[in-house]
Design goal:
The complex is a heterodimer of chains A (635) and B (374). By secondary structure, chain A is α+β, with helices and mostly antiparallel strands. In chain A, 39% of the residues lie in helices and 20% in strands. Chain A is built from 23 helices and 21 strands. The N and C termini of chain A lie far apart (135 Å). Chain B has 14 helices and two strands; from the N terminus they run H-H-H-H-E-E-H-H-H-H-H-H-H-H-H-H. The radius of gyration of chain B is 21 Å and the shape is globular. Chain B has 374 residues and is mostly helical.
Chain lengths: 635, 374
């Protein structure tokens, strides 16, 4: 054991020279060994870098790009919707919304509270803001208020300094300039929800916030939407976009649609309803183009675009006359006497009656061997009537008897030719199919056998019958076109690229007439013309340049045995569902109209005047087109 | 009185200016390294002049410290060694009681000066080991080894307790290199390494913090937790690998500029450098470090006495540990441990303590065998 040779004061304790030399030599060897090891290790480290930067370079480069390049979808502009004459029905308008960016605003709740002192901010706005905020990053603006009015923008601008992180941001929103008038045909768009996500192509809708919910907006969603575009943005680790990289793919705007609807006719029809609940449809029987589709009452579709407030929604839901119900597609009406021309035609076509055959109307009709009386509208009856008179004066007995002779199976088989009991295939979603009474239907629905008495009342459009206004209109149009059916439709022309002329869509190939003998049609048509000349609707038939063929319908809303009947009998206007159907010019029809009112005295007094008003509005345009056709050399 | 002091100071400064006692090749290499550091920092901080300026000021302070220490003869350093060592260990203990810092108790706040006492150990530890071994017959036997081990273990455990595994590792390494250079027999080294390997499972179960274990586990499979612990490793490898052979170019490294790379001005600045300058830049930088280490070892070999030799040698080899641990970390072959890339990573204490170490080397160089000394 050697002595410690350290003295704190002197501090110069040298080892013997020889020992020091040995130590120096040892050190030199060790330093060399150490350096060799260090060199090896650093070469190893360099090789590791080389492995990453050469061998793995391609893979890691790709990951670096994947890190920083975010493909951001660009929403296409939604296609516009016009009527047949270029009246705008749906557009994209610039609006302003108030956005709060949490990162800049700091205390968001406090900001919102202070904003509410400057602008109206509802609790719903706040709860929607809080929901949206969870899905956004803190540097992204989240809308608090939509559709700011100019006054609100001005009021905010004055106080802007007090609200860092709050901005007025322009955006495009869907607007329906004619509002409620087209709510049930054009429909509306709304925010994409969970159900929409399930059916939509996630890529195409990556940047889209709204989607067609009802009406044309829904059924032509694909055409209206357009193609999504993309741009590549460089983002940082928080996904905050820093700059746009080259290689942008512009979105393709949706198609502009031209509907067959004539907005003037639509407006006139709606006005003529004067708020009474019901529906009206006008069709061009030559091609199935829908010229007017009215469902009253309606609602403002603009309310739904950015989310309807629950108070507004409840008001609409709770309204007794159901403004949200699309009566055109899902209204359930008893056709009543409007079915008679079809039943009469069936009798002729099936060879059960000739046009000149007559029936004696005594006011009461009995099934042989049964005691129940089936009545006429007039006590004592109409006397002896042929088909023309039976239609013109709506003589029940004629149709009781022909239906009974026909039997329910032939009855429903023939009437189904006119589309009763089936959806029409119109280019709208959610169409009801109504009920065409038949043995099979009753078995399926009630599991009960068919009784002859049910055939009798089916002959006057009562009993199990249910039609939708569109279905009835389609049947009348088919009848007007001498039995040639055309699928009713709303889309008439499409503008693909926003600049070229609208391109008319090709019509479906013409189908064969469902009427076997044209002479039979003549007889029915004469009866329907007689309705407006001397029959039930003679009051509305006068003074029109073209002959009109039509038929009224007045169906009892309640069974006479029902308690409701007695309770409301003081108010006869409440008793009936009233309908009117017509087409004109009678020989070569260019328009067919049906009007259905949920309450009224009779088809003639309440429904027919609406149809007449529509015809009056339609007429000048038609005359103009006729003159042009003549001048253009077309027959 | 004050006039005398000022006159003396002026004289000292003028002597230092005329005869700086600096090793010019080493100084040149260090200045080049600091230049690379500032350039990389300017890019990594996304062209933040303020950050670069503050780092440049720290380098300036470090250079003043270096020049000052270079003027202190090694013999004087040797006389101070036990007191410096003792002082720094006491400060370390104080930090554990009073210290503050982000999650780890490392900083001592002296109001005017905040610093990590553990940085002092980076210098005082090799000094103490050199001082002690200088007194012992060399090559060291088990007894000397045990005592030296104790001198190393006490501060290392205190630092590991903070917990600052990176610094503890550097301090253990600098002490161990001293013993290695003193000529510890190879068979003893082998025995030590074998027993250390055997102790690893024990450490794993009883000594390591969960976060430290996680770092090791993450190293083995970073993709298992790509947004958590694996994020650093994955993003750093992406940065390095996407740089390729020639690099993306200065300030074109997307990984750091877009903030995918965490700690990109400090611990992970090597990734930024590798991304922007590629394999070529990395090779040149590693060569520069190798040159500095070689030059330092050369100075150590030519030192006048055992104390100076061991001290200089330990400091030189510790430099390698910085580079290796940091480089291994950014390339994903070593766990994430907070060890800076010497003179490149942003941070004051480490730059100053490194330059102080080079000051010691400069002093030893000035007092080498062949030089007149004094």
């Amino acid at each position: 054991m050697k002595r410690l040779r350290w003295t704190s004061r002197r501090g110069h304790a040298h080892k013997p020279i020889g020992e020091a030399r040995v130590e120096a030599a040892t050190f030199a060897r060790r330093a060399l060994a150490g350096f060799a090891l260090i060199t090896l290790c650093l070469i190893g480290l360099g090789l590791r870098f080389a492995y990453l930067q050469v061998r793995e370079h391609a893979r890691l480069s790709a990951r670096s790009d994947a890190n920083r390049i975010l493909t951001r979808p660009l929403a296409p502009a939604r296609g516009l919707i016009y009527d047949r004459n270029g009246v705008l029905l749906a557009e994209n308008v610039a609006a302003f919304r108030l956005e709060v960016t949490a990162e800049q605003a700091g205390d968001v709740q406090d900001t919102v509270r202070r904003l509410a002192e400057v602008l109206p901010v509802s609790d719903e706005d706040i709860s929607r803001y809080n929901t949206l905020r969870k899905r956004k990053r803190s540097y992204e603006g989240v809308p608090l208020r939509l559709k700011l009015s100019e006054e609100e923008i001005a009021r905010f601008s004055v106080n802007r300094w007090a609200f860092p992180g709050v901005d007025v941001v322009p955006y495009l929103t869907r607007a329906y300039p004619l509002g409620a008038e087209f709510a049930h045909t054009v429909g509306y768009v709304g925010r994409i929800d969970e159900n929409d996500l399930a059916r939509l192509d996630a890529n195409q809708y990556a940047a889209t916030t709204h989607v067609g919910k009802t009406g044309i907006e829904r059924s032509y969603e694909q055409r209206l939407h357009g193609q999504v575009g993309y741009e590549k943005v460089e983002v940082n680790a928080d996904h905050r976009p820093l700059r746009v990289l080259p290689g942008r793919v512009a979105p393709v705007p949706g198609d502009t649609l031209y509907l067959s609807i004539d907005a003037r006719l639509q407006e006139a029809a709606e006005a003529a309803f004067q708020g009474r609940a019901g529906a009206a449809v006008a069709i061009d029987p030559r091609n199935g183009e829908l010229l007017a589709m009215v469902s009253v009452p309606s609602f403002d579709p603009n309310l739904f675009v950015n989310g309807i407030s629950s108070a507004d929604y409840r008001t609409l839901l709770d309204a007794p006359d159901k403004p949200l119900l699309n009566r055109l597609l899902r209204g359930t009406y008893t056709p009543g006497s409007t079915i008679k021309p079809f039943v009469g035609l069936a009798g002729l076509e099936l060879g059960l009656r000739r046009p000149e055959d007559t029936v004696l109307s005594t006011g009461e009709f009995f099934i042989p061997g049964q005691s129940r009386a089936y009545r006429d509208d007039v006590r004592g009856g109409f006397g002896r009537v042929d088909l023309v008179q039976a239609i013109a004066r709506s003589v029940n007995t004629y149709f009781y008897s022909v239906s009974l002779d026909m039997g329910i199976d032939r009855f429903s088989a023939y009437l189904s030719r006119f589309g009763f009991g089936q959806a029409t295939g119109v280019d709208l979603i959610g169409e009801g199919s109504g009920v065409l009474p038949s043995r099979e239907w009753k078995r399926a629905r009630f599991n009960q056998p068919w009784y002859p008495g049910e055939t009798v009342i089916a002959g006057i459009g009562q009993g199990y019958w249910i039609v939708t206004p569109l279905q009835l209109a389609n049947a009348v149009a088919t009848l007007a076109a001498r039995g040639v059916p055309h699928t009713p439709h709303l889309l008439r022309a499409v503008q693909d690229d926003g600049t070229s002329a609208p391109r008319l869509l090709p019509l479906a190939p013409e189908q064969a007439s469902v009427i076997d003998h044209p002479a039979n049609w003549q007889a029915v048509q004469r009866g329907m013309v007689e309705v407006l000349q001397a029959g039930t609707a003679r009051a509305v038939g006068g003074d029109f340049p073209y002959p009109i063929a039509g038929k009224t319908g007045t169906a009892e809303r309640y069974s006479r045995t029902d308690e409701t009947w007695t309770s409301i009998s003081a108010s006869p206007i409440e008793r009936h569902q009233v309908l009117f159907e017509c087409f004109t010019p009678a020989d070569n029809p260019r328009i067919a109209i049906i009007v259905a009112l949920e309450a009224g005295r009779s088809g003639a007094s309440d429904a027919a005047p609406i149809a007449r008003h529509m015809l009056d509005v339609w007429l000048p345009g038609d005359q103009q087109r006729q003159r042009e056709a003549l001048a253009g050399g077309h027959p | 009185m004050i006039g005398d002091l000022l006159a003396q100071l002026r004289y000292r400064v003028s002597v230092a200016w005329r005869k700086p006692r600096l090793d010019l090749p080493l100084l040149g290499a260090l200045l080049l390294l600091m230049g690379i550091g500032l350039g990389t920092l300017y890019s990594a901080s996304d062209l933040d002049r303020g950050q670069v300026l503050s780092q440049a000021l720290r380098f300036a302070l470090g250079l003043v410290v270096m020049v000052t220490i270079a003027r202190v003869p090694p013999s004087m350093l040797r006389n101070w060694t036990p007191w410096l060592y003792l002082g720094s260990v006491i400060l370390l203990a104080v930090v554990i009681v009073l210290g503050e810092g982000r999650g780890a108790n490392r900083w001592l706040d002296l109001k005017v000066l905040r610093f990590q006492p553990s940085e002092l150990l980076k210098l005082t530890m090799p000094m103490m080991v050199a001082w002690y071994l200088n007194l012992r017959p060399l090559p060291p036997g088990w007894g000397t080894l045990a005592s030296a081990g104790g001198l190393i273990a006490v501060p290392a455990l205190l630092i590991a307790k903070q917990p600052d595994l990176g610094t503890a590792l550097l301090i253990v390494a600098s002490g161990a290199f001293g013993i290695f250079l003193a000529g510890l027999a190879w068979w003893r080294i082998a025995t030590l390494l074998a027993s250390a390997a055997a102790a690893v499972p024990l450490l794993w179960h009883f000594a390591m913090h969960d976060y430290q274990k996680n770092r090791v586990l993450t190293l083995i499979d970073p993709e298992a937790d790509p947004l958590g612990n694996g994020w650093h490793i994955i993003q750093s490898q992406i940065a390095v690998g996407s740089g390729g052979v020639w690099g993306k170019g200065w300030h074109h490294g997307t990984q750091s500029r877009l903030e995918f790379l965490p700690e990109h001005t400090t611990d992970f600045i090597f990734s930024v450098f590798a991304e922007e300058w590629g394999l070529v830049g990395v090779a040149l930088l590693l060569a520069l470090y190798l040159f500095i280490i070689a030059r330092c070892l050369w100075i150590a070999t030519n030192a006048r006495d055992t104390y100076s030799r061991l001290l200089a040698g330990a400091i030189s080899m510790a430099l390698f540990v910085y580079v290796m641990v940091n480089g291994g970390m950014v390339t994903g072959i070593l766990p994430v441990v907070g060890v800076p890339l010497p003179l490149v990573s942003y941070g004051g204490t480490s730059a100053v303590s490194l330059l102080a170490g080079f000051g010691v080397l400069m002093s030893i160089h000035a007092h080498r065998r062949s030089a007149g000394g004094g």
